[in-house]
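Record Aquaporin, 224 aa.
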Amino acid sequence: MNRFVAEFIGTLALVLFGCGAAVLGGDHVGQLGIALAFGFAIVAMAYGIGPVSGCHVNPAVSLAVFIAGRMSAKDMVVYWIAQFLGALVGAGILMALAKDGAASGLGHNGWGPGYGGEYGMHAALIFEIVMTALFVIVILGSTGPGSAPGFAGLGIGITLAVIHIVGIQVTGVSVNPARSFGPAVLVGGSALAQLWLFFVAPAVGAVIGALLYRFNVLKAPEAS
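=>
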């Protein structure tokens, strides 16, 4: 239960801080500010709830940790439930705060005409797969054997911020099905219709990144 609560709170905070920066402060902080909000949210949660649950706050990360052999399927499902619920509640709080409610978009992910830089579906798929794979590689590497775990949260948060700097105009950046789920469910319309991509692409990316560790393609050298 303590891990469930930690993942729920962490995912809620990620959506509220990151999407909140876009919805409530985007005109003032710009793309860089939004990117840093997502990154700093992960840093804060990594040190706040990391000792409790590992601070996955992302179903793709939990999938990767499972594939890498670092958690059970049962625990993964528990994490998923907490993450999706947390994202939905976080988006609900943001909707209550936003002046235009769901009409503000709640920082939902998307692609195509009328969204961001109007990139196509193929660009969105490639971006989300590649960036999720790279994100997972950083997470598994910075928390695995031979790492400096005290610095993991910082490295992971910086990576997420950089991913946002690169990709906000492409998809708004998901690399996290729960982060996409919460806003999309409340906004509806095209945000909900396009939600499938933000489940499929991060899952594929997570599998690619995790398999590199599962089969020891990426393995820290043993101390001599």
